[in-house]
Amino acid sequence: MAKILDGNILSKAIKNEIKAEIERDNLKVGLAVILVGDDPASHIYVNYKQKDCAECGIESSKYILSESAGTDELLSLIDTLNEDSGVNGILIQQPLPKQIDLTAANERINPLKDVDAFRADNVGRITIGDYTLGSCTPAGVMEMLRREEIPVSGKECVVVGRSNIVGKPMAMMLLHEHGTVTICHSRTANLKEVCKRADILVAAIGKANFISAEYVKKGAVVIDVGINRNEDNKLCGDVDFAAVEPLAGYITPVPGGVGPMTRAMLMKNTLTAMKLQSELNKA
Predict the structure, then answer these.
(1) Which one of 21, 100, 177, 265 is CB 3.0 to 4.6 Å from 139, fit for a cystine?
(2) Each residue of 25-70: pLDDT tens digit?
(3) Residue 116 known to be catalytic
(4) 224 and 182, same structural domain?
(5) Rounded to an integer, what distance in angstroms lies between the CA atom of residue 42 and that of residue 39?
(6) What is the pLDDT of residues 140-178, one digit of tens each?
(7) Which domain holds residue 101?
(8) Helix axes 7-24 and 258-282, enclosed angle (nearest 10)
């Protein structure tokens, strides 16, 4: 039976550490979240993030634009938030309406306020291993491995998925910790065989219960990044948990695994961003 990697417990510890530092040093930290449109799931996710902010002692503000808002309106708001010294981090909640240019919006955010680390320059820093703001989901996975004392160095690591948000930065972070990394995708030949080599398997493809026991080596660390709905409309991951859990050495549940760690790293990035901006202002 696998050990369950409980993201709720681990993320609570991280948020407590952030709160303690903010209170000890009497820091003022602010996060602005931008919503465009009325997507119900997006509003739920933003509410979770605002709750996290409250737990950490971070001031949160929410800005809502209409479903019909254009790119120029969003860029104007970002410009205002860039100039606001009380805002240390800016997050654009996705998905966005189709008329919005997401790349332009991400690139408009001050790089020191890019707490999602989506700007091209911040992604580049992750690639070369010289970064202070890491993509929240991969950073959350790495923090989980570190806190559970699961070694990466010398291990065979397989990342299933090549998105700019998770797959690519995940692979880079594992590589920086001296893992031997393979990135798989929709055109990978012999996917089951490749996955079954993995000591650490990260599933980030967005297909419900896709990774079955046939993909997993006995004793492997299985990290499930997916958030999907199954045929019964219940939340599930990319990994068939019931089938894989008896085989794995460690496994993350969905929900309650990587998700809370992603949000905790957003809080950590916001605190880090505040420190970076403070140092720049002193210079």
Answers:
(1) 265
(2) 999 999 999 999 988 889 999 999 999 999 999 999 999 999 999 9
(3) yes
(4) yes
(5) 5
(6) 999 999 999 999 999 999 999 999 999 999 999 999 999
(7) 26-110
(8) 20
